């Protein structure tokens, strides 16, 4: 059984399709990282899954149950933007109210335990209006967790957290999946945090799912590779393919060759043996940020392309990096 399944899920705001015929499948027990540029449609998807926004069309099934428009599963907890809290009540009172509304037995004790779990025990009796941004974020997480959900939707869970908070929320997410079999659907712009916990990624662009990647595929795409610039690059490519059949070669936009699964020495020997003049032979590593910037913006608007192009150019200049091309 899948935890989330959408078919043709669409949300239009006037003429604008914020989410456009999205077919999404998240398996039970996954930590699915949902990534995309600002305005790509991530929060709108989350809100439709949580029953906070009515879809224009399409179907949603959560934990195997078809959802009526605007409704959602009681087995799901959600942290989406500003959680609805009563600012004049304490954190404990807010979470206990939520627990009671979900029919949790011994609501106050469970609320106190949940606040402990998210690192907010010390502030449990303080009024929410005195909470910092990070404390409010932890409270939102407690509200999402208090009903022991089987599915968690987390929209930007690291917002406002200090480094220690980021780490403890990340550890909590991983332990919920490992120990309780919870499925997590999480959006975040903090890619290096996602990288440490996600099992699969979905890239959304202009309301459409444009790419899904397993962690292995991301590792492969970011693995060390050899960059070769030389005279007659097309000829050089065929020489390399013939001489080193175990290698994986990609011709980049600027006529450089990217090679994986071979060493720079092997590439150098093969090219020199054919008399090809090499102008650059280096080993590099593409980081996850660069990979995803490429995926999020490949066919975006002219404006986003321009912005991505400038950023990539700068990063390449800084680090001797690569074009956004997923082999
Ligand atoms: N209530 C609304 N009315 C009109 N347009 C909306 C509304 N909510 C979202 N949008 C538009 O829908 C698009 C998707 O917005 P959404 O908030 O889902 O993006 P996002 O990927 O979550 O962005 P971010 O990373 O900045 O949070 C944007 O163009 C946004 O302006």
Automatic annotation (TrEMBL):
PROSITE patterns, A to Z: ABC_TRANSPORTER_1 (PS00211), ABC_TRANSPORTER_2 (PS50893)
Going by the UniProt record, its keywords in alphabetical order are:
ATP-binding, Nucleotide-binding, Transport
Output the Pfam families linked to this UniProt entry. Answer: ABC_tran
Q: Give the ABC transporter domain ranges.
A: 4-231
The record's GO molecular-function terms, alphabetically, read: ATP binding; ATP hydrolysis activity
InterPro entries the UniProt entry points to = AAA+_ATPase, ABC_transporter-like_ATP-bd, ABC_transporter-like_CS, P-loop_NTPase
The source's superkingdom equals Bacteria
Which SUPFAM superfamilies does this chain map to? P-loop containing nucleoside triphosphate hydrolases
Q: Does the keyword Iron-sulfur apply?
A: no
**Family affiliation:** Belongs to the ABC transporter superfamily.
Q: Which PANTHER family match?
A: ABC TRANSPORTER, ATP-BINDING PROTEIN
Protein name from the UniProt record: ABC transporter domain-containing protein
Q: Which organism is it from?
A: Slackia piriformis YIT 12062
Q: What is the lineage of its organism?
A: Bacteria, Bacillati, Actinomycetota, Coriobacteriia, Eggerthellales
């Amino acid at each position: 059984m899948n935890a989330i399944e959408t078919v043709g899920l669409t949300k239009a705001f006037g003429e604008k399709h914020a989410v456009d015929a999205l077919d999404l499948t998240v398996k039970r027990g996954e930590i699915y990282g949902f990534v995309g540029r600002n305005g790509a449609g991530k929060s709108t998807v989350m809100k439709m899954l949580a029953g906070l926004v009515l879809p224009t069309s399409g179907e949603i099934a959560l934990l195997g149950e078809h959802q009526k428009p605007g409704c959602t599963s009681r087995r799901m907890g959600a942290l989406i933007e500003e959680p609805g809290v009563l600012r004049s009540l304490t954190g404990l009172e807010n979470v206990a109210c939520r627990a009671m509304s979900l029919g949790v037995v011994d609501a106050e004790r469970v609320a106190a335990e949940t606040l402990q779990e998210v690192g907010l025990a010390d502030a449990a009796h303080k009024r929410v209006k005195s909470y910092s941004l990070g404390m409010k974020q932890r409270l939102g997480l407690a509200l999402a967790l208090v009903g022991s959900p089987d599915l968690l939707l987390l929209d930007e869970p690291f917002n406002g957290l200090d480094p220690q908070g980021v780490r403890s929320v990340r550890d909590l997410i991983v332990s919920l999946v490992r120990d309780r079999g919870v499925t997590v659907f999480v959006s975040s712009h903090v890619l290096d945090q996602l990288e440490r916990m996600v099992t699969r990624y979905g890239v959304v662009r202009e309301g459409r799912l444009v790419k899904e990647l397993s962690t292995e595929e991301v590792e492969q795409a970011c693995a060390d590779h050899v960059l070769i610039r030389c005279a007659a690059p097309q000829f050089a490519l065929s020489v390399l393919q013939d001489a080193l059949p175990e290698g994986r070669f990609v011709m980049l936009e600027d006529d450089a060759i990217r090679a994986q699964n071979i060493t720079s020495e092997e590439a150098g020997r093969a090219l020199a043996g054919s008399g090809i003049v090499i102008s650059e032979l280096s080993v590099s590593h593409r980081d996850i940020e660069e990979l995803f910037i490429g995926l999020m913006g490949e066919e975006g608007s002219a404006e986003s392309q321009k912005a991505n192009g400038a950023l990539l150019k700068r990063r390449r200049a800084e680090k001797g990096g690569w074009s956004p091309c997923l082999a």
